[in-house]
Amino acid sequence: MNSNRLTLFRWFIAVVCVVALSHCADSTMDTSEEGTEAYSSIEGEATSLLGLCGGPKGLQCPKSQYCKIRAGGCDTPAEYGKCTSFPQVCPLFLKPVCGCDGKTYGNECEMEMAGISKDYDGVCKNTCVDDSQCVKGSVCDPNSCNADSGLCTPVPSTCPRIFAPVCGCNGKTYGNDCLRLKAGTGLAYPGKCKCQSVTCPVGQDGIDTNGDGCADTCKAKCNDTCDCYKAGLSYSKPCPLLCASCDNYWTCGSDGYCHEGCGPVPLESLLCGNDCLQTGWCPDGYECVEETQCSCPPGVDPTMCDGPCFITGMCKKKEPGCCASDADCLSPAAKLVCVEGVCEPAPGPGLCWDNGDCAQGSHCEGAITCPCGALCIVPSQPGKCIPDEPVCLSDADCPSGTHCELETICPCGTNPGSDPTCLAPCYLKGKCVPNLPPGCCKADSDCKTGMACVAGVCEPKPPMGQCWKDADCGEHYVCKGAITCPCGAQCFVASKPGVCEPKYPMCQPTGACPTGSTCTCVPPPGCPECDSCFFMCVPNPTKIGCYGDQDCPTGTKCNAGEICLPPPGCAPGMICPAVCYGYCVN
Q1: Residue of 446, 456, 452 lying closest to 468 (CA atoms)
Q2: 242: how many CB neighbours lie within 10 A of its CB?
Q3: In 62-162, which ranges are continuous DSSP H helix?
Q4: pTM of the model
């Protein structure tokens, strides 16, 4: 009895000493078989035996545990903590916390797995002077443009594609704050940077070249290069005459604005800057045409001023006659071919004007042609030779590793009466597709009884009301929510059937339906033979065109002689057999 009391007394003293360890640091109890001391000394380190850690003695935890202190107690001297086991697995969700080591963790569990206690919720708001004081992947983002310090802020590897402009301390506007952060500049204020745009003369537009959201230069609009020479523009600086044909020149860019150039003058620029009435010169294939030009004050639209006006000569390309064949396009300079009556350059390898330019087994796609004499917005340009898709009528027509999938093609549509002048019959068209992996099914017949072929996998046939596809539900229902994992694929979610849902609105037997539909009793999904039914507003049937009874549903016949027309190509006065069709009737 006395021994038990002594043991309890020792435990009481141990707890009191741990709670107020700083006041009884010298009260370390003797190590005994009963293990009643508050801590022991191992290799000079104080080791906790009661689950407490830290404190003035720096109590340590076993290797399988770490010392967890209260949240926010990181900077408290001699803070006591509790020995806590490391977590084994952490959930995959993002709820950032800041640890006592100044690092941001994805969630509290990840922080505990690293053996760190929590300072506060959210990302760490560490102050800094420069990037060197921040962890890898973060930069020191200044608090303001003139601030001496900032906060260590993580830099995303990619920025979101959203437009929320901010103004950087460098005076540039960024699409969002992430782009500003990646550019390494501080935040001046939200929104676009305030700046002053230049004022441009009539006929010129202000252009923003530095991306700050304000126009800083003016550019003249043009439809062709000669418009730039008519606009009275000035060169920014003289061009060094480093070659016989070098000089300043203007060109009309693809953006619709005049651009200044320096170097060998292109032919189109040379023609626009040349008054052929004075020089008497135009290159081969061009002719001198008189044009009236008016001199106007700067900033005044040439079409709105009174002059003075004068006549100049412009070299214009001669309009050749239309070609009838490639023989009309003979040229010593280049090989030309006749395309829609126009002599065009012969297409290079892999390019084409029509299917005749492509090798057997391929066809021409994407060619743009402008017929002779036409005014086209888009100039002619060759297309590309594209390999034909392999066609087949059976698996024997396909290369190894593929099989033939047939499709019924009806040029006249599935409803013959929709176009009585169309006489083209339906035909089969096949294409070679890769074989399914071994063990995959093609049809329900490849599966055992009670199984259905779903995306190449034999799956159990769904019970009534469930489905893999619309056909499992019946005519008046659709299949929704089915998940299928194709044969040979690795899917995170297993296949499961969906639910048959009504295709049309439900109704009461005596209730009203929208115009064009009738409240009809339809069988339950997947059970056409059931006696019970659901009431739906089913669209009223439309007339079905037909040529014979074979085109009509069961229980109806074709009154094929109702409408008769002469066949296509039957000229007046000719005796042609009539083409008759009708509609399916009860």
Answers
A1: 452
A2: 9
A3: 108-113
A4: 0.29
Q: Which two tokens stand for residue 237?
A: 């600086």
Q: Tens digit of pLDDT for each residue in 169-202?
A: 887 888 898 999 888 888 888 888 877 667 888 7
420 token code pair:
């009585």
Q: Alpha-carbon dihedral of residues 438, 439, 445, 450, nearest 10 degrees?
A: -170
Q: In 10 A of CB 216, how many CB atoms? A: 15
**Tokens 């620029």 appear where?**
269
Element at 517 (helix H, strand E): strand 517-522
Kindly report, residue by residue over 325-337, the tens digit of the pLDDT: 787 787 766 788 8
Question: In angstroms, rounded to a whole number, what is the distance separating the alpha carbons of residues 532 and 523?
Answer: 6
417 phi and psi, to 5 degrees?
-75, -10
Residue with tokens 């990840």: 110
Strands 150-154 and 517-522: unpaired
**Structural domain total, the chain:** 5
Nearest-10 Cα torsion for 304, 306, 312, 318: 40
Looking at the fold, whether 280 and 215 belong to one and the same domain comes out as yes
Closest by Cα among 532, 516, 530, 523 to 502: 523
* Rounded-to-5 percentages of helix, strand, coil across the chain: 15, 30, 55
Residue 398 belongs to a domain: no
> In the structure encoding, which two tokens stand for residue 506, read together?
């439900």
Q: Which sign does the torsion angle of CA 330, 333, 337, 339 carry? A: negative
Q: Give pLDDT tens digits for 363-372.
A: 898 898 888 8
CA proximity to 122, closest of 145, 81, 151: 151
How many Cα neighbours within 13 Å face the side chain of 583? 7
Q: 213-227 pLDDT, tens per residue? A: 677 788 888 988 888
3-state secondary structure of 20: coil
- Going by C-alpha positions, the residue among 274, 271, 306 that lies closest to residue 286 is 271
- Say how far apart CA 245 and CA 241 lie, in whole Å: 8
Residue 242 has pLDDT above 60, yes or no: yes
- 332: Cβ–Cβ under 8 A, 6 or more apart, which residues? none
Domain end call among 520, 539, 558: 539
Residue 397 is encoded by which pair of tokens? 């027509």
> Could you give the 3-state DSSP secondary structure of residue 10?
helix
Q: For residue 75, which amino acid is it? A: D
Residue 425 domain flag: no
196 occurs within a structural domain: no
User: How far, in Å, CA of 534 to CA of 90, rounded?
Assistant: 50
**Residue corresponding to tokens 């700083």:** 22
- Amino acid at the residue 145: C
Q: Are 185 and 222 contained in the same domain? A: no
Angle at 113 between CA 111 and CA 117, to 5 degrees: 45
Domain enclosing residue 375, as ranges: 326-387
Whether 532 and 447 map to the same domain: the answer is yes
